[in-house]
Amino acid sequence: QKYFDAHPEVDVVFGDYIVTDPHGHPVALRREIPFRKFYVANSFLNMQSATIFFRRKLWDSGILKINSKYRYAADKDLILRIAEAGHLIHHIPDYFSLFGIDGTNLSTHPQMGKESEEIRIAFGAYKSQPLRKLALMGRRFERLFIGSYRSKSISYKYALNEEPRYEDHTATNLGGRYALTAFTGQANSLRNTYSK
Q: How far apart are CA 111 and CA 108, in angstroms?
């Protein structure tokens, strides 16, 4: 709330997150860069849904309605629609949440690739794969430049249940990269889908 109060021009904020395995053990630190519609349209959504906060006026206006056409990439469509409508989206470089991966997350489903491509086309992404790869390289270079890939130590509490009962986790020299294919489940078939 303080950030929104201090920045009345901003309608959406998002933050960084810690990627964990199914048991809450740290896998990677995702330190993001500022939102760039160009990067998202040409590659993937660099905002974890659990870190996004919106002003109430967006809800009241109806723009936050999820497009029921999409199941796996609806968040990407939503964020691009918000940006296209002229709402400012800012990144706050602080950890907002944990994101657990187990290989069965919606983002690992084979339909994710199809939906993402449809959204890319709808929002003016390059048709050329080499140009899209250049956009992705630009995003990665920007992350490298601000230190997103640097290893860092971190400690956090992981809720084990609803009571809540917590478990403390600490990681030293934790980096910023991970692969969904390192986990069992649907991620393997997604990788096969892209390698054809």
A: 8
Backbone region of residue 24 per phi and psi (left: phi > 0; alpha: psi in -120 to 50; beta: other values):
left
The tens digit of pLDDT for each residue in 115-152 reads: 999 999 999 999 999 999 999 999 999 999 999 999 99
Q: Could you give the CA distance from residue 117 to residue 115 in angstroms, rounded to a whole number?
A: 5
* pLDDT for the residue numbered 104: 79
Say how many C-beta atoms besides its own lie within 10 A of residue 66's C-beta. 11
Domains assigned to the chain: 2-189 (3.90.550)
For residue 122, the SS3 value is helix
- In the block, residue with structure tokens 């519609």: 37
Residues recorded for the chain: 196
In this predicted structure, what is the pLDDT of residue 181? 60
Mean pLDDT of 2-13: 97
